[in-house]
Each structure stands twice: as C-alpha cells, then as structure tokens.
Amino acid sequence: MIGILGGTFDPVHHGHLRVALEVRQRLHMESVHLIPSARPPHRGEPQASAELRFQMLQVAIVDTEGLLADDRELRRPGASYMVDTLAELRAEKPQQPLALILGMDAFRGLHHWHQWQKLIEFAHLVVVYRPETSIPIEPEIQQFLVKYQTRKPKRLRQQLSGRVLLQEIPALTVSSTRIRMQVANGENPRYLLPDASLALITQHQLYMKA
Ligand code: ATP
Questions:
Q1: Residues in domain Cytidyltransferase-like (predicted)?
Q2: How many domains does the chain have?
Q3: Residue 169 Cα: closest atom of ligand 1
Q4: Which pLDDT score, from 0 to 100, does residue 23 have?
Q5: Element (DSSP H or E) covering residue 164
Q6: Is the CB of 97 inside a 6 Å radius of any atom of ligand 1?
Q7: Is 46 among the domain residues?
Q8: Where residue 105 falls among pLDDT bands split at 50, 70, 90?
Q9: 208: how many CB neighbours lie within 10 A of its CB?
Q10: Would you state the pLDDT for residue 151?
C-alpha cells in the first residue's frame, strides 16, 4: 500500500512528518508520498514559491526510509486538484492499494474539494485525529462515512480503494501558520521543523511578513 499526504507545506513541519511516519508504520505502507500543492485551490496563495516549499520538504525527509518528496503537482499546469493526482498514481500503480492521508480538519471540508466523490474510486482515505478530537461532522460527510467506513485496517489491503479508516494518532500541535508568524515576529521556530528546512527559510528570507 502507498500513502499520499498532500498539503501546502508552507513550510513542512514535524506535525506533517510524524503523521507520515506513524501512518506508514501502523498500516505497514511501502512508502508515503508527500506532495506539495503547487496552486492550492481551497486557500489563498502560499507565501513561499512551490519550488521552495518542495525543497524544504526534500531536505526534511532526505534520510527517512519510506518517505518520498513527490513534485508531480509542480509539473502540472493549472489548479492542483487531488483527484487528478490520485488518477495519475492509480494509472502508475494499477495493482497497489492507495491511501490518501488527511487530517480531521481537512476531512471535515472534503465535500468542497473538486470531484470529491471520485477520490474514493482511486484511493482509500486514512483520516488521522488526535485522541481528544470530537468526531465531526456535516451531513454529507456523515453519509459518506456510513457508506465507506471500515474499522479494520486490514480491509485496506484487500482492495485497491474505496474504504475510509479513522486512525487515532498522537499528533503534535504544530502548524505552518504558527511557524510563519514566529518568523515574521523575529522569533526562532527551531524544533518545530527540521533544521535543514529552517536553514532554507533563513537563506531565502521567507515569511518575514505576517
Ligand atoms: P497552515 O497552518 O498553513 O494551514 P498546516 O500546518 O495545517 O498549514 P497543511 O500543509 O495545510 O499544513 O497540511 C497538510 C495536511 O497535514 C492536512 O491534511 C492537515 O490536516 C495535516 N496536518 C497539518 N498539521 C498537522 C499536525 N500538527 N498534526 C496532524 N496533521 C497535521
């Protein structure tokens, strides 16, 4: 099984990296692709360029077995839709189960994504949540869960796509927003993200303005 963690990664931080590693280990995934959104359709323009966001990610995971920095959305013109990314990966890996990894916050807004009902045709969804989080949800997402949810991780290996697993993990309270604000305020965000990624922020003077 291959995991996919999409995000803005503006910048990548230890919250993202722990999620990727925890899910890979718990669900015995061969690898997890971390895929920066070049032009995220659901939010304002990222502060750092797509190339620098990708570089920060690459240096962050360089020596971590099983985590891959994947630049496919940078190579595609137009809005970066996850459904297109999953369709591409499905075509490349016709025999492998795929699993899109999402935070609970992202899952709650899933019905606003482009062609959201198609995502589950190409991949499973693994929704990660923290122990104290209340589980959602709007009626559309609730119905979606009723239809596709499984409580058995091994079901994900038995089919290529089509299941939703809610996976509790000990998440870290780190966000890219907090890192950008700290840099803009002249504070040191060290230990919230890898040193190599922080070095690129310093070198390119990223996030100086809030
Ligand atoms: P921002 O603060 O700019 O909104 P972010 O830190 O939430 O950014 P994204 O790149 O938007 O990061 O997140 C990509 C994915 O990682 C989303 O599915 C999100 O839910 C998840 N995620 C982000 N931070 C954490 C965290 N600390 N723990 C668990 N999941 C996270």
A1: 4-181
A2: 1
A3: 29
A4: 97
A5: strand 164-168
A6: no
A7: yes
A8: confident
A9: 12
A10: 96
Nearest ligand 1 atom to the CA of 104 is 20
Q: Identify the CATH number of the domain in which residue 26 sits.
A: 3.40.50.620
CA atoms within 13 A on the CB side of 7: 27
Instruction: Quickly count helices (H) and strands (E) in the chain.
Output: 9, 6
Domain containing 62 equals 2-171
Q: How far apart are CA 163 and CA 156, in angstroms?
A: 7
Residue 168 is encoded by which pair of tokens? 């509790």
Ligand 1 site-directed mutation target among 16, 39, 179, most atoms within 8 Å of CB = 16
Q: Scan for tokens 């509790």, then name that residue.
A: 168
Average pLDDT over residues 55-68: 96
pTM exceeding 0.90: yes
**Is residue 136 over pLDDT 70?**
no
Cβ–ligand 1 contact at 105 (below 6 Å): yes
Determine, yes or no, domain membership for 204.
no
